[in-house]
Amino acid sequence: MNLVVVVREVPDIQEELEVAADGKDIDRTFISFVMNEFDEQALEEALVLKEEGQADSVLVAALDGEGVDDILYTALAKGADEAVKVIHGLEPPIPTRVRAALLAAALKSIPHDLIFTGVQSAEDWDGQLAPLLGAALDYPWVEVVTAVRLEDGLAVVEKEFKGGLRAELEVRLPAVLGIQAATKPPRYAPVSRIRQLMRTATLKTVEVNEMSPAPAAKIRRLSRPVASRSAEFIEGSLDEVVEGLLSVFRNAGVLRGEG
Amino acid sequence: MGNLVVLAEYLRGAVADVTFELLGKARELGNLLGLSVEVVVVSDRQPDDVTGRLGPADRAWLILHPDLGEFQPEGMARALAAFLGERRPRLVLTSTTAFGMDVAAGIGGLLGWPVVAYCSALQVADRTIIATSQVYGGKVLVEVEIPDEPTVIAALPGSFPAPVGPSAPAAVEIWEPAGLQPARLRLRRWVEPEAADVDITRAEILVVAGRGIKSADNLPLIEELARALGGVVAASRPVVDAGWLPRNRQVGKSGLTVRPRLYLGLGVSGAPEHLEGMKDSQLIVAINTDRKAPIFDVAHYGVVGDIFEVVPALIERLRPEGH
Amino acid sequence: MPTDWSKKVEKERVLEKEVAVVEGVELRGMWNRMFEQRVIWDYETGILDQITSLPGGESLGYCYQCGKCVGVCPVDIVGNYGPRKIYRKAQLGTDLFSDPDLWLCTTCMNCLRVCPKEVNMVEIMPAMRAFAINSGRPVPPELQKAFENIARYGNPMGESPRRRADWVKTAGVPVTVLPQSRRPVDVLLYVGSYPSYHPRGQDAARAMVRVLDRLGVDFGILGPEEKEDGDSVRMAGERGLFEMLAEDNIRTFARYQFERIVVFGPHEYNAFVRAYPRFAAENGFDWSYQVLHYTQFLASMLDRLQPLLVRPLEYTVTFHDPCYLGRHHNEYEAPRRLLRAIPGLKMVEMFRCRENGYCCGGGGGGMWLDSFTSGYTRRRLSEQRVLEAIEVGAEVLAVCCPYEVSRFEDAVKSTGNDGRLVVRDIIELIAESMFGGDTK
């Protein structure tokens, strides 16, 4: 049973993100990149399955991009068996649908029984990868997966809904799973092991040809939500305070059972 | 030009609130654009109780197939793709929920239609539909122009705060997909959440107790408010240290990092170690007696006041009428 | 009641004759009883061998279980962990690389001070932790997060490196940020992560630059180019991360001209005085800086400082010796000389002070193991220390390690002593006496 974990880099949102001068993208000059946090969960889940003997190997694959080498070496340091970088020649940001097409092409030369990726990423406003990749490969897919067990030719997964309700689904392989959370928190990759792998390990590469652009909504502009530095205080009598709070909750759509 | 189609989030015999929010928004857009509103339910049988309460759509559809009886994300997406591909609506409206995430991008991928996920606003300017989507953990808003072709919109629940209530649609028409490929997914069972294993990192609403709750005796009050809001009780470190709540409820540097849709802090002063674990919450509301408490530096809304006055009054107002 | 020895020793080792004649005296039965030598080495020595074969782990083998360390171990005082017990557990075959005890030592060095065999936990523990981390054993989540933040952002809180010098804007005096001004300075003030980012640390940082400015010291900071020193990271076992930080910092320092380094924290002091020189020598880097803790630097110019301390502070103050300044570097006087120079201030010493000073719990990675450690102690080490300060009637607990302010302030609250004791960095007290006003 060969598991492939598709990972990607995303801008580190811990850093201040600025909108580029043309307003159509974030300013990519000074930002740094990290592994998409949900891809870390997907990798952890795959590694746990391998350690439990449910799977034989874990291969990580990523489209080439800034910071991707670091991400792949970190995945190797955590215990992935192989790392593949997909060379494509496109400039960021790459629409998620194009990512799916590039990965589907690359996966033709990568043996796989089950594909894991993160349930979502910081940049996938144009659709999540798992369903798009499933559609591109004609495999079944499940998003928001929180547990995976492998049985003969099947993955038995738990998909989580609001309030902790879960659906246990069985999925015929090969399939694509969008992982929300691994069974345990992602493990630590010791720096000395990452640095050693950077000196000794090689990243495999697969080259794919440029895909024709997919239909997409056109970006008009990016903006940063207006955030006040300090709280807006709700004042007045007890009744006024309570009404104020309720209207804040209502406007945020967190008040249930009303209307 | 096609219509506006809302995909009903129909699970275990109930239609989710978000469907009515979408219907409300579709109605508003439909009036502006002169388009009719349709709603679609997928099921393996005719659920009378539900199809009778799907309004206020102009038309209601029931996609009927024996394989689509229980939750079947991929099969649903394929059946919907077949249905929608024939009709080419202007917009397909669904939500960024566990249900919608399987279906929205799935339909987009199968039909080659654009998708806009995490949509928090939809408006019309010069007959152009403009969608706003929240990206980068809510730190950036991206405004996109919907092209002149069918587009799938997955909205964040709660984005359209004027939901329409259920009502009877004009008529329910049945559509049966032909040649649907055999199901590759099967629902084995539903697993109900256990009360004991609360995971505060996944709760959408967190009511967070701080040192200001003063004693474990006051926890039932906090729990009552959390229940009334449909949320979960979490705590800052002093409360956990005191043994009033277990460690898995602790927010902060030495606890868990949370990003709920609502963080409601009660008597939480906001030590830097606590802020580290919650500052990215979508909406932060804090109640504290000390106006200078650092929690107010990260809160969106604050109340300077006594939680023992405000909380009971809030619970009173949240209590359903007649109970 | 006579002792029933048969239950205490193995029967086959008891030698007893019905009658034995010793020097003409007849000894019957129990009066001639002897015992064969008890075999004390029938333990599994695998774990012990594994630890003593690690570089730095050798001295664990010297332990002869006298137990002197247990009485002075700050963790044992509030819990059940003690250095002697590490050896004993290893003897009994406990896998210490996966045991909670692996993370409880704060490397405070009080055990080494009293150990007749020089069993050096300050080296053993980091060596064991390094082995555990590098062999993929789980790291407590809080510590893992700190490591990841430090690797990524250069500080344990995960704050943006670009905001490292933001506190300067509210300092009220001009501060030279070397990457911007690129001029030679006399003193490189290495600020450290907590004074750079933690609100209470920033209070101390601002006090520091105001005092230095008033003294006319020509100093600069590295601003966004400064990174966590890595000493506590090393003691917590992430050797690779320490090396990465040391390389980065050594290269950064080499880009600027200064005569000496003054550090805020004892951990940074230990890094630059002990760990960096060794690392530099082993890896072909240059390192020949004069390094001073700020209390040493200010004490060396007390003749200029003292006349500026004009406002009397009528406080009863006790001083907490930081482990890494006191025991690790034998500096007990500089902080006390500064405190005594403040007019009106009354000093009291705690029962555990100087060489036997108690530990705040923050060293050796303890700063990032708070919740983990609290699962194995009756109260936090910081809480114990706060109670000791209250006990001697102190109104102010003076500190000079940036780890301590937030730890102790929190402990003051959690022990219910809010309003009875305040925690101040020495530099805040100096600034208060110099400029008036509450430094907070």
Properties at a glance:
heterotrimer; A: 259 residues; alpha/beta; Rossmann fold; 2 domains; 9-stranded mixed sheet; two-stranded antiparallel ribbon; 6 helices; 27% helix; B: 323 residues; 5-stranded parallel sheet; 17 strands; 28% strand
Can you walk me through this structure?
The complex is a heterotrimer of chains A (259), B (323) and C (440). Chain A has helices spanning 37-51, 68-78, 96-107, 129-137, 191-200, 238-251; strands spanning 2-6, 9-11, 33-35, 57-63, 82-87, 114-118, 141-151, 154-160, 166-172, 175-179, 204-207, 218-223, 232-233. Chain A is globular and about 65 Å long. Chain A folds into two domains: 2-207, HUPs (Rossmann fold, 3-Layer(aba) Sandwich), CATH 3.40.50.620; 228-259. With 259 residues, chain A is α/β, with parallel strands linked by helices. Chain B folds into two domains: 4-175, HUPs (Rossmann fold, 3-Layer(aba) Sandwich); 205-318, TPP-binding domain (Rossmann fold, 3-Layer(aba) Sandwich). The longest helix of chain B has 17 residues, at 17-33. With 440 residues, chain C is of the alpha/beta class. Chain C folds into four domains: 5-35, no CATH class; 46-134, no CATH class; 154-299, 3-Layer(aba) Sandwich (Rossmann fold), CATH 3.40.50; 305-435, 3-Layer(aba) Sandwich (Rossmann fold). Chain C is built from 20 helices and 13 strands. Chain C is elongated, with a radius of gyration of 26 Å. The N and C termini of chain C lie far apart (67 Å). The model of chain C has no long low-confidence stretch (mean pLDDT 93).
The assembly state of the depicted protein chains is heterotrimer
Rounded mean pLDDT score of chain C: 93
Rg estimate of chain B, integer Å: 22 Å
Runs of chain B in which pLDDT lies below 50 for 5 or more consecutive residues are none
Rg of chain C, alpha carbons? 26 Å
Count of DSSP strands of chain C: 13
**Regions of chain C with pLDDT < 50 over 5+ consecutive residues?**
none
Number of DSSP E strands of chain B: 17
CATH topology of the largest domain in chain B: Rossmann fold
